Amino acid sequence: MRRREALAMLAAGALLPGRAAAHPTPPEGDPDGTPPTRTDTGYGPLARLHVGGATDAVVSDDGTTAFVAATTGYVVVDVSDPDDPAILAERRDLLADREGGPLTGIYDVKLSGDTLLVVGPANPGQSDLSGALVVDVAEPSRPEHRAFYETDYPIHNCDLEGDRAYLTVNRGDRRALSIVDVAGEPTEIGAWSLREHDERWGDLAPYPRTLHDVFVQDGVAYLAHWDAGTWLLDVTDPASPTVLTHIGRDPGTVIDQYESGADGYDGLPGNDHYAAVDESGDLLAIGREAWATEERPEGGPGGIDLYDVSTPESPTHRATIDPPPTPDATQQGVWTTAHNFEFRNEILYSSWYRGGVKRHDVSDPAAPLELTWWADRPHAEFWTARVAVPGSTFVAASRATGQSPAALYVFPDADGETTWGFDDGAATPTSAETPTATETPSRVSTPGLGPLAALAGVGAGALARLRRHEHP
Predict the structure, then answer these.
(1) How many other C-beta atoms lie within 10 A of the C-beta of residue 38?
(2) Angle at the Cα of 328 (from 323 to 332), degrees rounded to 5?
(3) What CA–CA distances, in Å, run from 298 to 40, 301, 302, 450, 460?
(4) 425-460 as b/e, with b when 16 or more CB fall inside 10 Å?
(5) Residue 472 within any structural domain of the chain
(6) Which residues contact 308 (CB under 8 A, 6 or more apart)?
(7) pTM (2 decimals)?
(8) Cα-atom radius of gyration of the chain, to the nearest Å?
(9) β-strands 416-420, 369-376: how paired?
């Protein structure tokens, strides 16, 4: 089935059981994911493509090409045929000829027009070379490395709007945003520091005020600053960013709660991990990556909070989307805490590690309605969910698990549910042709919570360092 036929069928809602159901779910204990021993009997992915080291992913504006951060490089994937995604280009050992190269620890890529931004390393110690690689992807099958902006700090996450790159800066005591012009030779044209904005934050250890991620839309940067909350900055003048609002606790409260043991780096409250707005800029989601601990079992997993920011100076909490259940919410258990997400056309597409991927109707932000939930707890650990063709397909990148390799999944942009590994290990399929989202209650709660989020994708050693609040 070719792209035009496939998308026409999907847009019409004609998801044939033979297509959506025929995609195999890898059996436990089979690292290659073959041969399949079970299939999704209702809603399920259209395709699954092995991409070694996959973490985050973005999709081109036309929905035909996905760009995947792949730890030791990046991979370009043709997703124009939802049933048969194919690798167009794979680039590893980036900048191996440079001193300190190659660039590795690549957990994030961002796309703007024909420019791809590839950053790393995500965490200290993953690479001797740090920085942002600017790639021309006008021909996706032949990416051309145009420039490299070398830094003296690791880059966990970034964003790209037009010719401006926005980089997370976390080194020693510095927790900041760097704004870099990448139109020609990359040059920093602006910066913003939490501590310089309010020196009281300097009394808090660096890790709890980590700038974990940045999202930029229409000249506003949304900064997920972990326990220091989420900050909205006007960056239309990059040389002089100004604060629009802050969602979260004041520095004195955070410091007091750390000292009393009421808060900690690993768990709620706090843990603002990722923040993004819908197309209008009026609805903000803050995802909180968090875990339970023996001392604080209520510390996780974290969900996604929705805020009305139509008046930025007066953000209003509307609802919280709860994470999928897990028998062990600690870092050593089964991760089902919130990770990355995207809004499109009043639908929130979200990833929850082994909790799977979800779609929520957020047309009424006070009552988000779950439309889709697909999970395969033993074999898929989703890092992100991104729209490809609205109303037709979305993609999701999964890290490797002990049973299956890392992969890029292509899903129908439709309603339904299949949750391998939940409900006592049984699948709970719902036909995509007969969605039941309007017939079942949404899995949300609406407490008056503050912002929630956290640092994702760090290894056990790094997490141990974070718990000790050591400086990178």
Answers:
(1) 13
(2) 110
(3) 33, 8, 10, 15, 21
(4) eebebbbbbebebeeeebbbebeebbbbbbbbbbee
(5) no
(6) 282, 283, 284, 315, 316, 318, 365
(7) 0.85
(8) 21
(9) parallel
Could you give the CA distance from residue 116 to residue 136 in angstroms, rounded to a whole number? 6
The CATH number for 131's domain is 2.130.10.10
Q: Does residue 106 fall inside a structural domain?
A: yes
Which residue has 């996706």 as its token pair?
Answer: 140
Q: What are phi and psi of 144, to 5 degrees?
A: -120, 125
Residue 185: partners with Cβ closer than 8 Å, 6 or more residues away: 147
CA-based nearest residue to 226, from 468, 462, 452, 448: 452
Q: Which amino acid appears at position 65 of this protein?
A: T
pLDDT (tens, 9 = 90+) of the chain, 472 residues, equals 333 333 333 333 333 222 333 344 554 445 444 434 456 668 999 999 999 999 999 999 999 999 999 999 999 999 999 999 999 999 999 999 999 999 999 999 999 999 999 999 999 999 999 999 999 999 999 999 999 999 999 999 999 999 999 999 999 999 999 999 999 999 999 999 999 999 999 999 999 999 999 999 999 999 999 999 999 999 999 999 999 999 999 999 999 999 999 999 999 999 999 999 999 999 999 999 999 999 999 999 999 999 999 999 999 999 999 999 998 999 999 999 999 999 999 999 999 999 999 999 999 999 999 999 999 999 999 999 999 999 999 999 999 998 899 999 999 999 999 999 887 543 444 333 322 222 222 222 222 222 222 333 333 333 332 332 222 2
Q: Identify whether 227 is part of a domain.
A: yes
User: For residue 372, what is the enclosing H or E element?
Assistant: strand 369-376
Give domain status of residue 37, yes or no: yes
Residue for token digits 């089902």? Answer: 336
Range of the domain at 288: 3-467
The CA-CA-CA angle for residues 121, 224, 358, to 5°, reads 90
**At 12, which amino acid appears?**
A
Instruction: Give the 3-state secondary structure of residue 131.
Output: strand
Looking at the 3D structure of the chain, how many domains does it have? 1
Query: Distance between CA 454 and CA 240 in Å, rounded?
Result: 27
Tell me how many helices (H) and strands (E) the chain has. 5, 32
Q: Measure CA of the first residue to CA of the last residue in the chain; give whole Å.
A: 50
